Amino acid sequence: MPDDRKPANTSNRKAKKQFLANALLSYILLVYRKPPGTGGKESIEEALVDTIRNRRSIRKYTAQLVPQELVTRLLEAAMSAPSAGNEQPWEFIVITDREVLQAITRVHPYSQMLKEAPLAVVVCGNLEREKYPGFWVEDCSAATENILLEAEEIGLGGVWLGVYPHDERVKGLAELLRLPSSVVPLSIVALGYPAEKKPPAERFDPSRVHTNRW
Prior knowledge:
By secondary structure, the protein is an alpha+beta fold. Helices cover 40% and strands 14% of the residues. It has six helices and four strands, in the order αααβαβαβαβ.
């Protein structure tokens, strides 16, 4: 009489392997995809493009405070920026003190939203950390943009306030925040939970694109 147990065991092993493979795939999709219904996007790439395109300058905020874990995420994103020779010349001043936020509005003419914002991050370049003089501006600009993108991703709104190279703003902010002489403020990012909503801006202009030469 033929023994049917071996084929049955083989079939069971195949089924088990298939089950484990499906379970692993489901786990990967759960970890690396946005949940269904979150923007309706199916991949990390699509979600990233959405974050870039949906980012807008938000100047109105609710009174809700930004929890420390989200502040940490903003700073982690900032420090993930590229820098010349990996010099990472940045320093960050996190401001939640209402008096300090109010004081900034007296030294920066376009920072009036800080009267409402619960949070600001001042992005600075430390000249003592430079390997390649002058590139701190590009490095800290990349860090500033990363803060804005992470803010969009985690449900916050933000706006980039330029400081450098306006001498009066640089001097006023440096004095207010008691910055060392080697540390230069590049930008302020006002942040908070948005009290306004703006649609994505369509800014692509093919006339600005040049191939190989002008």
